Amino acid sequence: MDDVFKALADPTRRGLLDALQREDGQSLRALEGRVAMTRFGVMKHLRVLEDAGLVVTRRRGREKLHYLNAVPIRLIHDRWVSKYAEPWAAALTDIKDRLEAETMEKVFEIYIKTTPERLWEAITDSDLRRRYNFGVGVVSDWTAGSHYEGVHASAPGGKPLDLVVAAIFEVGIPPVDKARGYTTLRTAQALLGRPETIDRIEIRLFDPEDAIRVNARLERIFGYDGESWKESNANFLAIFAMQDMVVSFVIGAILLVGGFGILAIQIMIVLQKQRDIAILRSVGLRRADILRIFLLQGIIIALVGGLVGDVLGKVAVYYLGQLPVKAEGLVKTDTFLVKDDPAIYVWGIAFAILVGVVASLIPAIRGSRVEPVEVLRGQIG
To answer: Distance of CA 28 to CAs 40, 46, 62, 351, 370, Å?
Structure first.
């Protein structure tokens, strides 16, 4: 208990505890910005608070979060506040808590010396758990693989209910997974104290891209304001649109470079093969035949390059999708997010052929205009 008084004696440490009381679960960087002190000074004070048991730390990813542990302070309270004064003090603090209450994550810690049997009883006994588990009991037979149930739900103005957790699932979107639960309509109305009331209807479409048209139609039919998922997430979609634009510019630059490469190869072939072209012209091939030969050559080069690029791209996308990446922001994923759409490979080959044809057109026209007499003059005999 001496460590607790020593930790509370410093005004800076009391300020850190006040900051955690206002917003629990803060990182070192966040706490550093709340006091006029260097990072190492804040770390030193937090170490004193941890040694006294007033601060508990938990790691979440790469961050180390700090939580206020009120148990040591409660032990001081129990030692010096008599059982006669406690109801009056509790009433006053209860009023204070009700007026200042905010929803926040709490992590408490205490070390208890007991036997395994009594510890098991504290974990499995439903009535005992309600005393330290925020009024929530449990229902289970406590055998390996058995079902575990226990939810005590309440809302301002509604009726507290003991509910059963039927299933837990994730949609992969943290804002939804952390804050949303599903129950029957009647249960939700009783829980919120709003019988016969429905204030929100969500509709899931087979084609998400059709949301704006369906929303406009429903507004015309029923007269209620609606909002499609595109309107709700307009800011994110605008960012994605900008990202797609940047990607399009990059792809366009790559195609342009590839086109110039094909152009250079074809021009070099025309310059090197002028004598062969002249011989072909002299044996009866027309200008159109020479033009088709070089265009066909460009198409073949582009087609082979497109197929090889598709194969290499498919392999790259597969291995990128296997890269372990822990991300929990807009979406939750354990691997690198990639889009493997077959249409992209088809468009890749189509663009490659288009660029190949355009890049081969100038050398093909130049090759078709080669005059046999001018090229072969002085080379025969």
So the answer is: 10, 9, 12, 52, 76
